[in-house]
Amino acid sequence: MRVGFQEELDYLEASLHEEGTLVLRSLRGALNALVQQDEELADEVIAFDDEIDARYLAVEEGVQELLARQTPVAGDLRLVLSMLHVNLHLERIGDYCVTIAKLVKLAPPVAPDRMFVDAFQEMGTRAEEMIRVALDSFAARNLEQAETLVDLDELIDRANRRFVQQVLSFGRDPKLHEWGLRMIVVSRCFERIGDHAVDIGERTAYLVSGEFREFTDASHPDEPEG
Amino acid sequence: MSVTDAPVKIAGDLQRESTPRGAAVFDVQNVGVSYDGNLAVHEVTLPIYEKQVTAIIGPSGCGKSTFIRVFNRMNDLIPNAKVHGKVLYHGADLYGKDVDPVEVRKQIGMVFQKPNPFPKSIYDNVAFGPRVLGWRKELDERVERALRRAALWDEVKDRLKKNALGLSGGQQQRLCIARALATEPDVILMDEPASALDPIATTRIEDLMHELKRDYTILIVTHNMQQAARVADMTAFFSVDIAPEGDRTGILVEYDETSKIFTQPSDQRTEDYVTGRFG
Questions:
Q1: Which of A2, A142, B173, B230 is found 20 to 30 A from A191 (Cα to Cα)?
Q2: Residues of B with Cβ-Cβ distance to A7 under 8 angstroms
Q3: Domains of chain B as residue ranges with CATH
């Protein structure tokens, strides 16, 4: 039994999950800054990304060292490779939170309809849930739970499409137009966070089964039969 | 121009060409080996493919070395050793009554853990096999060819008459490989060929295996799992069954492509061994 190696693996995975917790904090901050139009909080989210980046680098260095010194194989190799991917997905999610925070500061101060606030609440909460499900299923090596991410993602996708439709129905007010354009990007950020959560779920599938596969194939959507 | 018209180097083109799997040189059917009635290796069935490197890995006492000796009838030389089951070599029974074990060992050469050159000149070491077989013609060419194939020629061509024991460990091992090649074998068995060598000499032996598999079928027993991962196309993992009375018997647990064994083994015992959690 390679005790030292197992300890290093466990430590690395724990670091990855801590990074996940930081990312969730960042997302909650970005969402609150958005719905409360709180620029100070937005600044905090932007600054907080350095902590996520530091954790990201530490995990990547840990993976590099494990590969160089321990030459993991079989299940260990799949875990190390999966951590490398999940690490990158988490870091990207952190970046989307920063983008949302920056857009909170850039958007003109208009008082949006309650409908839009609710839409952001819905997308943000769904994105949080997806990150939790992705990280929990990875930790538990639970393929079934990971596969539920596809349905959760569909809900965010729909919310995003609805949001865009609502913005397109705006009238001629240029201020409202600018706000709408910036908020479409925010909506898109939530939608992308959902995609990254699904990608983490796919890594769980690879870790458990050893097979690379996408849960859904966006390049070849189901063609109608007959 | 559409996206699909653009010249694209797809990843598939860049993939390392894997060795196409040829015909089976050996067909091992329910082969077991016993010493004094005690089963050392139990009921192994597997094919060994032509012009591939096949590695046999497993913990100490799992019968790897015993098993590899089945292929050139080396166990015949051990008193009270008995081989059960069937080994077909190019379809013919290797243990058939009319098969001469000496002829078998000409076709199926062997290299051992410790380099064991004869205390003779480099030339005489390589020429030994052909001389025993009565191949007197073009002996110089034969010796040169074997030394070239063993990647040793350039290092020894100016001192062929010098004693082989003056060579370094790695050179001695390549000399032993040249000696095995000189009788124009079909298969080369290697029992821990690099375990007594330093990392650089080990790399040269591994590179040599890569070259030799173009022309020969190679079976290697190794304790070094990473060596199996580096050199072998196919890998067989052996383990040990310990009976309540303490008798130890080697069993074949899993046999598959090396990449499969080291990324996604099918058997938990293989996973535990290759990841270092057992053995």
A1: A142
A2: none
A3: 20-274 (3.40.50.300)
Question: Is the CB of residue A81 less than 8 Å away from at least one CB of chain B?
Answer: no
Q: Per the domain annotation, does A86 fall within a domain?
A: yes
Domain for residue A220, yes or no?
no
Q: How many residues does chain A have?
A: 226
Q: Per residue in B23-51, pLDDT tens? A: 999 999 999 999 998 999 999 999 999 99
Helix ranges restricted to H, chain B:
11-14, 64-68, 101-107, 122-132, 139-149, 153-156, 169-181, 199-212, 225-231, 258-263, 268-274
Token pair belonging to A89: 């997905």
| CB-closest option in B226, B229, B277 to A1 | B277
Contact A5 B276 (CB under 8 A): yes
Tell me, what CATH number does A180's domain have?
Answer: 1.20.58.220
Q: Which residues pair with B49 in a beta bridge?
A: B24
Q: Is A7 on the interface with B (CB under 8 A)?
A: no
Could you read off the pLDDT of A59-116 as tens digits, one per residue? 999 999 999 888 899 999 999 999 999 999 999 999 999 999 999 999 877 776 788 8
CB contact under 8 A, A78 and B277: no
Shortest CA distance to A175 belongs to which of A111, A104, A105?
A: A111
Dist CA B207 CA B227 (whole Å):
11
